[in-house]
Design a protein that fits this description.
Elements: H1 14-31, H2 37-46, E1 49-51, E2 57-60, E3 68-69, H3 71-84, E4 88-91, E5 97-103, H4 107-116, H5 149-161, E6 174-177, E7 191-198, E8 201-208, E9 220-227, H6 232-245, H7 256-263, H8 265-280, E10 313-315, E11 321-326, E12 332-334, H9 335-346, E13 353-356, E14 362-368, H10 369-378, E15 392-393, H11 396-399, H12 407-417, E16 427-430, E17 444-453, E18 456-465, E19 478-484, H13 488-501, H14 507-525
Parallel strand pairs: 6-7, 15-16, 16-17
Antiparallel strand pairs: 1-2, 2-5, 3-13, 4-5, 4-12, 7-8, 8-9, 10-11, 11-14, 13-14, 17-18, 18-19
Helix pairs in contact: 1-2, 3-9, 6-8, 7-8, 13-14
Bound molecules: iron/sulfur cluster (SF4).
The site of iron/sulfur cluster (SF4) has 12 residues, from loops.
């Protein structure tokens, strides 16, 4: 029988409140023009407030701890969205939400309302320890080693108590994963933890020095085992290493992966071990109380029955329960739809949970068969039925002030053209090389750029192929060609025709058997600025 035990979520401490309140003082100074715009931008970024495209528009990113969000918090978020953000919220690629098109003057009011919901915004941007990723299905996934949610939460509580987590040389990302599939992005993080059992004990394999953006790198393995009670030490050690050796002069080469690159793997590992030894002296940060949540990850051994898995319906390890994945187009969810979802699921009882994904979506967990059936009927528009429909595009040039291309528009065109066609893969589109959609990790990834030809520039995408994430097998995709935007849909049409000719039902089969044909098609479009 599934036993539910609520995790103790984070409540706002006085220290956290004081940290958040510092923003208000900075904002007042900015409004009174007592600080220069670029100085305020540095501060506001650390609080998740960024100017966005459009005169006077800003966006704000609240910190949704590892994507775990309660019904009450979602109600409050929806209310804020309606009051300040034109009735929409955006679900991100890192288990967060964003309010877009807000006014700078309203930002402190929004933050106060978030504080009432036990949500802060600091550390969601700028040079900070960012939201720690944790797979949205951790705790319910039948294939997991164990539930890593408690560990991600303990790590988050710990970093909230640390000083100077928003004045690092650059951003610092941490991920926890519960399976080999590494859905918490541990193998591409500055510091990553992948669950492992050893002699009946729960623990982790540790990875470090990875990261995305321009010059992406897969992490290196730093340790094959660390007991779950020791997870705070790698965090402290890596933070110390970063503070001591990170480049504060040039932000373009400041991430931890550049320290690794400069030193080489062996020296980096020695340095990490040295810091680990220093911070582990006296064992001050050993975690004693994780056993409290043991029942939460209880594995049910009985065979499962009922509805089959689909792209959006997942049978949980708890017999008779399901998770439903909702994927609003581009992650843009109307508050009206969110309210409808909350009204319907509230009556299902407090067993139901909500988790944000790393793919611009939302999971509703612990649903009974009759409940998931009703939700599937009601929210047809939010449920992807093909991998292409589950694809993601960052906010891009439409909203983001540094975006070069509007990948959301392209994705809409692809959805329209390839409606319900199964054989195209999951794709990731980033509006620029910053790779917020992690495009180099997808079977096909697109990066917004410009194509220069005969003294003219054309809107275009760099096309990457063959990326994937998996413990011991994460691959950064290969850049095959730079293709004019107007030819991208045609390229996909040709790939689709190829899948029909070869009678392949899914992309993985097509790619494994006909990789050369696929590459030939993509390369064939490279550099062509005429209609193909
Ligand atoms: S990838 Fe570029 S365009 Fe997209 S959200 Fe990130 S910075 Fe903006």
């Amino acid at each position: 029988m599934f036993k539910l035990r609520r995790l103790h979520m984070i409540t706002i401490t006085q220290k956290m409140y004081e940290n958040q309140k510092r923003y208000r003082d900075e904002l007042v100074q900015a409004i009174e023009q007592k600080v220069k715009g670029h100085e305020f931008k540095k501060t506001s970024g650390a609080y998740g407030v960024y100017p966005q495209r459009g005169a006077g528009d800003y966006m704000m990113r609240p910190r949704i701890i590892s994507g775990i969000v309660t019904l009450n918090q979602l109600r409050g978020i929806s209310a804020i969205g309606k009051s300040y953000s034109k009735g929409w919220i955006h679900l991100t690629t890192r288990q967060a939400i964003q309010f877009h098109k807000i006014r700078l003057d309203d930002t402190w009011e929004i933050m106060k309302r978030l504080l009432d919901l036990d949500i802060v915004t600091y550390g969601t941007g700028g040079n900070s320890i960012r939201n720690i990723t944790c797979p949205a299905l951790s705790g319910v996934n039948p294939r997991e080693v164990f539930d890593v949610t408690p560990h991600a939460i303990e790590a988050t509580k710990f970093i909230f108590e640390l000083d100077e987590t928003i004045t690092l040389p650059r951003k610092f990302k941490i991920g926890f994963s519960n399976t080999e599939e590494d859905e918490g992005l541990a193998t591409i993080a500055d510091l990553g933890f992948i669950a492992k059992m050893k002699n009946g004990r729960r623990g982790f394999v540790i990875y470090g020095g990875g990261g995305f953006g321009s010059n992406p790198e897969v992490s290196v393995k730093l340790s094959d085992w660390i007991d779950e009670t020791q997870i705070l030490y790698p965090i402290l050690a890596m933070k110390q290493l970063f503070e001591t050796h990170g480049n504060r002069e040039n932000r373009n080469i400041a991430r931890i992966r550049y320290i690794l690159k400069n030193l080489g793997e062996e020296k980096f590992r020695v340095l990490y071990e040295r810091h680990l030894k220093t911070v582990s002296v006296n064992d001050l940060h050993k975690i004693e109380h994780l056993e409290d949540v043991k029942d939460f990850s209880k594995q049910v051994e009985e065979p499962m029955h009922g509805l089959p898995n689909t792209i959006s319906r997942i049978r949980q390890k708890q017999r008779g329960l399901y998770s439903l994945y909702l994927h609003p187009s581009h992650g843009d969810l109307s508050c009206e739809q969110l309210d409808q979802l909350l009204d319907m699921t509230e009556v299902f009882g407090d067993r139901v949970e909500y988790r944000l994904s790393i793919t611009q979506g939302l999971y509703v967990r612990n649903l009974r068969e009759e409940q998931i059936v009703v939700l599937e009927k009601t929210f047809k528009d939010l449920i992807p039925s093909t991998r292409l429909e589950a694809s993601i595009a960052c906010t891009g040039a439409n909203n983001c002030s540094i975006g070069l291309m509007d990948g959301q528009n392209l994705l809409t065109n692809l959805h329209t053209y390839f409606d319900k066609k199964e054989t195209l893969p999951f794709i990731r589109i980033s509006g620029c090389r910053n790779s917020c959609a992690l495009h180099q990790l997808a079977p096909i990834g697109l990066e917004g750029t410009k194509l220069k030809k005969e003294n003219k520039t054309y809107p275009a995408y760099k096309v990457y192929i063959g990326g994937r994430i998996k413990r011991e097998g994460t691959l950064i995709g290969t850049h095959l060609a730079t293709i004019a935007e107007k030819n991208i849909v045609n390229m996909f049409k040709e790939l689709y025709i190829l899948s029909n000719q070869k009678d392949c039902q899914d992309w993985d089969t097509l790619y494994s058997k006909y990789k050369e044909d696929i590459e030939k098609i993509i390369i064939g479009y490279g550099g062509n600025v005429n209609d193909a």
